[in-house]
From TrEMBL:
<dbReference type="InterPro" id="IPR020846">
    <property type="entry name" value="MFS_dom"/>
</dbReference>
<feature type="transmembrane region" description="Helical">
    <location>
        <begin position="254"/>
        <end position="272"/>
    </location>
</feature>
<keyword id="KW-1003">Cell membrane</keyword>
<dbReference type="InterPro" id="IPR050171">
    <property type="entry name" value="MFS_Transporters"/>
</dbReference>
<feature type="transmembrane region" description="Helical">
    <location>
        <begin position="177"/>
        <end position="200"/>
    </location>
</feature>
<feature type="domain" description="Major facilitator superfamily (MFS) profile">
    <location>
        <begin position="18"/>
        <end position="396"/>
    </location>
</feature>
<protein>
    <recommendedName>
        <fullName>Uncharacterized MFS-type transporter GA0061071_106231</fullName>
    </recommendedName>
</protein>
<feature type="transmembrane region" description="Helical">
    <location>
        <begin position="47"/>
        <end position="65"/>
    </location>
</feature>
<feature type="transmembrane region" description="Helical">
    <location>
        <begin position="373"/>
        <end position="391"/>
    </location>
</feature>
<keyword id="KW-0472">Membrane</keyword>
<feature type="transmembrane region" description="Helical">
    <location>
        <begin position="85"/>
        <end position="103"/>
    </location>
</feature>
<dbReference type="InterPro" id="IPR023008">
    <property type="entry name" value="MFS_YhhS-like"/>
</dbReference>
<dbReference type="InterPro" id="IPR011701">
    <property type="entry name" value="MFS"/>
</dbReference>
<keyword id="KW-1133">Transmembrane helix</keyword>
<feature type="transmembrane region" description="Helical">
    <location>
        <begin position="221"/>
        <end position="242"/>
    </location>
</feature>
<keyword id="KW-0812">Transmembrane</keyword>
<keyword id="KW-0997">Cell inner membrane</keyword>
Length: 398
């Protein structure tokens, strides 16, 4: 009881500063992801002379590695403590930069070897990201208490999108003035600085207790993960196809629409930092799904650019709190010593959703037009709303 009281007493800037003191490590991890994102496809295709397939594969390998390693990251975070897992993940980010540098040194003499080194770096980065991201979230929860888990997840999301948005243009600048070596050194420098900042920080204790097997954890969180996967479809089709949608309509301003989505996403998390604690995860998720569905319908039926922009804005605002709202409930569905595994398993559903949304939406677009993919995504999010409502009828799950 005293511990819970102390957790609840944290508020305002003091609480946010404690969370940010750990979230910076997730920010650093995602910055090392964003830095090479806009550079490597062109480098593989234009400089190394490989096809667009290989350029795309180099980027995709990181996401596959993240997807496959997430359950392991959660299990090790539960067993060893989140600080060790974060440092391990940041070491992976450092090694990815080293792999890029070695690939650049050998590109003129050993093209295949350089390509292998780039692929190796992407795989290492994907594994590092899953460990650093999962560990940073659990470390933050350990610092401020499980009462504030929703806010910790929200701040980690802000750090993620902020780092990606900053990393891409910064990476282009580094490559322009320093080549692949300059980009690689920047990645290694960011990772090394984060490691040096993380090492002296006090660790939180690893959870004690017998870990649940993966199948048992999956059995408790899959329904929340399914709702997350359905709700992520809207983000997937906007991020992937909004430019093609604007082109098909003969409009300009697709980039601004993406900016509106990001502003709505981050702004909603900043404006409602305590909404999940106040109203409950499932209630917030249902509101978010309703707003996101409305936004996607507006995009799909838009007759004017302003209508599409309003829809994109609403979709961003709605999607903003879906992950933390459902994540709070999913994590509470398992014992405390299995929360890392639960969080990692829950996140896998979003990874899968974003991985398959693009190809499936592309097939639907070829069959029935680009507008239909937004209406179809709205239907999926509406199903997620019904699923959350169904879960709400079983309050013992929350």
């Amino acid at each position: 009881m005293p511990e819970n009281a102390a957790e609840s007493a944290l508020s305002g800037w003091r609480l946010n500063l404690r969370i940010l003191s750990v979230v910076i490590f997730n920010f650093a991890s995602y910055l090392t992801i964003g830095l090479p994102l806009a550079v490597l496809p062109g480098y593989v295709h234009d400089v190394m002379g490989y096809s667009a397939f290989w350029a795309g594969l180099v980027i995709s390998l990181q996401y596959f590695a993240t997807l496959l390693s997430r359950p392991h990251a959660g299990r090790y975070a539960d067993a060893l403590g989140p600080k060790k897992v974060v440092v391990f993940g940041l070491c992976g980010a450092f090694l990815s930069g080293l792999s890029y540098m070695l690939a650049g040194m050998g590109s003129s003499h050993a093209g295949i070897l350089s390509l292998v080194l780039l692929c190796l770096g992407r795989v290492i980065l994907g594994i590092g990201q899953s460990f650093a991201g999962t560990g940073a979230t659990l470390w933050g929860v350990g610092v401020v208490g499980s009462v504030h888990i929703g806010r910790v997840i929200s701040w980690n999301g802000i750090a993620t999108y902020g780092a990606m948005a900053l990393g891409a243009p910064l990476g282009v600048l580094c490559y322009r003035y320093g080549g692949l070596a300059g980009l690689s050194l920047t990645i290694m420098g960011v990772a090394l600085l984060a490691i040096l900042l993380a090492l002296p920080r006090p660790a939180v204790k690893a959870s004690k207790g017998k870990p649940l097997p993966f199948r048992a954890v999956l059995g408790r969180v899959w329904v929340y993960g399914l709702a997350l996967a359905l709700g992520s479809a809207g983000f997937g089709v906007i991020a992937t196809f909004i430019t093609l949608y604007y082109d098909a309509q003969g409009w300009e301003g697709a980039a601004f629409a993406l900016t509106l989505f990001s502003v709505a996403f981050v702004g909603t998390r900043l404006l409602f930092p305590n909404g999940i604690n106040r109203f409950g995860g499932l209630n917030v998720a249902m509101i978010c799904f309703a707003v996101e569905t409305t936004g996607l319908v507006l995009v799909g039926l838009a007759a004017d650019p302003w209508m599409a922009k309003l829809g994109v804005f609403l979709a961003g605002a709605g999607f903003s709190l879906v992950f933390p709202a459902l994540g709070v409930v999913a994590v509470k569905a398992v014992p405390q010593h299995n929360q890392g595994s639960a969080l990692a398993t829950y996140t896998v559903f979003m990874d899968l959703s974003l991985g398959i949304t693009g190809p499936l939406a592309g097939l639907l677009m070829a069959w029935s037009g680009v507008s239909m993919i937004y209406l179809a995504a709205a239907g999926l999010v509406a199903i997620a709303l019904l699923l959350a409502w169904r879960l709400k009828l079983r309050p013992t799950l929350e």
